[in-house]
Amino acid sequence: MKPALFEPRVQFWLMLATAPGVGPVRACALRNSLNSSEITSLDSHLWDKLGLNSEQRRWMQSPGMQGMLDEARRWLDASDAHSILTPDTPGYPELLRESHGAPPVLFVRGDPKILQQPQLAIVGTRRPTPYGEKMAGHFALGLSELGYLVTSGLALGIDSCAHRAVVGAGYPGIAVLGSGLNQLYPKRNRMLAREIGERGGALVSEHWPSVGVRPEHFPRRNRIISGLSLGTLVVEASLKSGSLITARYTLEQGRELFAIPGSLLNPQADGSNQLIQNNAKLVRNVADIVEEIGALEAFAVLHYRSFEQTSSGKQDSLPTDSLLELVDYEVTSLDEIAERSLQSVGEIIARLTELELEGWVEAVAGGYVRIRRR
Questions:
Q1: pLDDT grade for 315, boundaries at 50, 70 and 90
Q2: Which of 59, 74, 199, 328 has a C-alpha 20 to 30 A away from that of 190?
Q3: Is the pLDDT of residue 156 over 90?
Q4: Which of 116, 77, 71 is nearest to 98 (CA)?
Q5: In this structure, are residues 297 and 290 in contact, taking their beta carbons and an 8 Å threshold?
């Protein structure tokens, strides 16, 4: 049951979160200086005790503040799937509550209870290679099969690949937005957002429903993604990628950081490779992630190994194939393969077709990529 909007503790956070000059860190510090009974007053004496300046106190009594409260109430009443969580409400995610600068308000579309379940974040570039797309989907599906919720940012690229792998298999997931929930961004992912809800997942934002996307929202969104999660997996990221911000937040919040190695020739992997060089754990499979999370997840590790063993009948050992060795995990053109193999193009195409049917390579724009079968 979602809390009533005008329950004093909820209204307190809604008002404090919009006060000019009061960010998440200060909001939590101010709240901690009060006891529960003081919050119920919501009068001028309360704002005086918090040390709010004259501009902030005027805002608390302004028509603009009342308009935002009315908007929140309309949004909350619009659907049973809408919830507003604050650090004082029982449903607020515990891991996020423990994070420095936890958002004072979370707008949630979907079942808020799902936010309490173990989550792992998957993030990366908006311009992934075919290898990156494959890895995002592979790890997202593998983690979902073990009962973890995959959390990401609904962005194009790696985020979308992870979300699609999860909903495509019928699992729930979580998307954290850098805009209000009535202003989904990017627009082309509206159907994906709907599918996340239909699979029992949730959309989350700290912004009022009508707020559009702004560049400064994305670092704040990334802080929530990492704060909700036991750890973060960076699939592909350039040196200027916003995913590196998520990685930094992950470490600051005391969570586990993982990265998938990429080709040294791929600029979209420079950032993730650098993370591995510095402080991220290189991962080759889902078990590498699960093993690092801790003793409480040991059962999931055993389950994963059992799953791999029972699935091994569908997987052949890596074939001894000189042609396969000539196909990289990045796009390799047919001309490159022919030059390396010294075979005729006809023979190469025939064998590559067999390898593609067996699941070892994939034809993409510009040539072929080598893939690792599940």
A1: very low
A2: 74
A3: yes
A4: 116
A5: yes
